[in-house]
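Human:
Care to share another protein and its fold?

Assistant:
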Amino acid sequence: MAASLNASVSSLQSSLLLLDSSISTLESGVSDFPRLCKVLQTTRHFELLPEPTLREAQQSLLDEITPSIGHLLSLASNHVEKLSRREQALRAKAELQEGRMYSSESRQTSSRSQNAHGDRQKANAAKAAEFRRLVQKKERLKYAVERLELQSKQRERQLRKSMAAQ
């Protein structure tokens, strides 16, 4: 009886070892199952639409964009016309200025007798310019003197503070 019991125990132990190895084999095979499910799961990246639906969407976009494009084109053409008119006006003004310069040059050559009067005006203008220059120099010097006075007062205050601190 003990021999048959020993045989049963050893048979049970070998069955347990076989079951353990089967469990570990199954475990290693199934441990990657969630990742495999995720990998094998299909995802639709693109939807196929029928051609009439696409044509309707294209026509709707075209209907929406066409008025805006027309408006922008009219604005651009108006601006180009405006710039063209401005260019023409500037050309006419330049031609007018050239004509004026030419006529003033011809007047200068014909009016040599007025040079004495012009020389006096130039001398007066030179004196006025010299006077303005001297006035500006006086103002600059006055400002420099005021700045130096303020600096000397500030140094006197600092000297008094340092004397009082000792």
Q: What stands out?
A: The longest helix spans residues 51-110. The chain has a mean pLDDT of 84. The CA atoms of residues 94 and 100 lie 10 Å apart.
